[in-house]
Amino acid sequence: MEAAFAPAVAAGIPWAAVLGNHDQESTLTREEVMKYIVAMNHSISFLNPPSTTAPMDGYGNYNLEVQGVASSKLENKSILNLYFLDSGDYSTVPFIPGFDWIKPSQQVWFQTTSSLLQ
Asked: Could you say which of 26, 44, 57, 66 is the most buried, measured as most Cβ atoms within 10 Å of its Cβ?
């Protein structure tokens, strides 16, 4: 895992990550993988939104706002919002084989968050 993020860490560049379908295929659980990523140098990733009170499926669901450049008319204004959603690993539904998907709890969080940012 270190090698995947090494260039950004070595350069001191802030970086973010999200989990995909194969990230738990090691000795760590999905939660442990995301906690490890969150603790890495220069990571601006989150385990899950800090303001969420309702349970949410997955780990690494969060958003990052990109603000305008200092001393510009867009300073301190949100110009871009990036959403990170854990897509899960494998389906747990017996008649749906293959990979998992974004869950309703994540959709609700996305819709609520995006409406608050408008």
From this structure: 57
